[in-house]
Design brief:
pyridoxal phosphate, six-stranded mixed beta sheet, about 50% helix, Threonine/serine dehydratase, single chain, three-stranded parallel beta sheet, Ser/Thr_deHydtase_PyrdxlP-BS, about 325 residues, alpha/beta, about 15% strand
Length: about 325
């Protein structure tokens, strides 16, 4: 799929996933603007249904299923936002959903997935073990596996964030996005390439877990031993052959690697200035802006706040 055809898919999704997916606000932040010297706008994806942009991609993927797939259901793997998004999208479209998750995942996140109607399968091991188990189960059953990023129909759903940004503030100079597998920044970047070509895409990573960044530097997808990070939503490897790799190569203009201390500072700032308790990945994007602010002094920038934090103890520990 070319960037032009992906844009067409994003434009179609922008209309088709309404009213299920919300148009989230783009809020000007006087406090962060004064701090950085930029005109800072916050794209409030933590106010999306299930608290994350992931609902956009899941909704788009499931709406495009053929009748047999809708009847038989789908399989996903997740410890949190993606699983909740697929579960809710499945419930709204009457598509059965099974989510594989590590047994060690936070109980509050597992409970949230169950409450949204998905069948939950717990797997011994980490997130990768859950993903491998889910993929094998999908192949055995002949069911679609809903990837959080390695699927152009999912990327098209995430790209509706970019469509909204272009409508809400078409004169943006830069957009800061936290990057895991690259689905969100690929979708936003594709939309803005057509609608707001002056907006630079800035990819932001925790330095402890930056597989896509290392892959972009190497010119190929590489394996990286990632460390612990507050941004667990962006942690994890990039699948060989992931469709997002070439998209990230084409669309990301600048990169920001941020430390755990910088993420913690950003989360604290968001809590103090905006009164929002957000997850680590949202802190990564703001930390990227704080680091790169001199480059954009006096310019209009957006920070995509990609999810709210539902684990109170973890948030308190992060900002303490």
């Amino acid at each position: 799929m070319t960037l032009d055809s992906l844009f067409d898919a994003i434009a179609a999704a922008h209309q088709a996933i309404r009213p299920q997916a919300r148009v989230t606000p783009l809020e000007h932040s006087p406090a962060l603007s004064a701090l950085t010297g930029c005109e800072v706008y916050l794209k409030c994806e933590h106010l999306q249904r299930t608290g994350s942009f992931k609902f956009r991609g899941a909704s788009n993927k499931l709406r495009l299923l053929d009748p047999a797939a809708r009847r038989d259901g789908v399989i996903a793997a997740s410890t949190g936002n993606h699983g909740q998004a697929v579960a809710l999208a499945g419930g709204l479209l009457q598509v059965p959903v099974t989510v594989y998750a590590p047994a060690s995942a936070a109980a509050v996140k597992l409970d949230a997935i169950r409450a949204l109607g998905a069948e939950l399968k717990l797997v011994d091991g980490d997130a990768l073990a859950a993903e491998l188990s889910a993929g094998a189960a999908a192949r055995r059953a002949g069911l679609p596996f809903v990837s959080p990023y390695n699927d152009l129909e999912v990327v098209a759903g995430q790209g509706t964030v970019g469509m909204e940004l272009a409508e809400q503030c078409p004169e943006l100079d830069a957009v800061f996005v936290s990057v895991g597998g690259g689905g969100l920044i690929s979708g936003i970047g594709t939309a803005l390439r057509r609608l707001a070509p002056g907006a630079e895409m800035v990819g932001c990573w925790p330095s402890a877990a930056a597989t896509m960044h290392a892959s972009l530097q190497a010119g190929r997808i590489v394996e990286v031993d990632e460390g612990d990070t507050l941004s667990d939503g962006t942690a994890g490897g990039v699948e060989p052959g992931a469709v997002t790799f070439e998209l990230c190569q084409a669309l990301i203009r600048h990169c920001a690697l941020v430390s755990e201390a910088e993420i913690r500072t950003a989360l604290r700032l968001l809590a103090q200035s905006e009164r929002w308790m957000l997850e680590g990945a949202a802190g990564v994007a703001l930390a990227g802006l704080l680091q790169q602010a001199p480059r954009y002094h006096g310019k209009k920038v957006a920070v995509v706040l990609c999810g709210r934090n539902i684990v109170l103890d973890k948030f308190v520990k992060a900002v303490s």
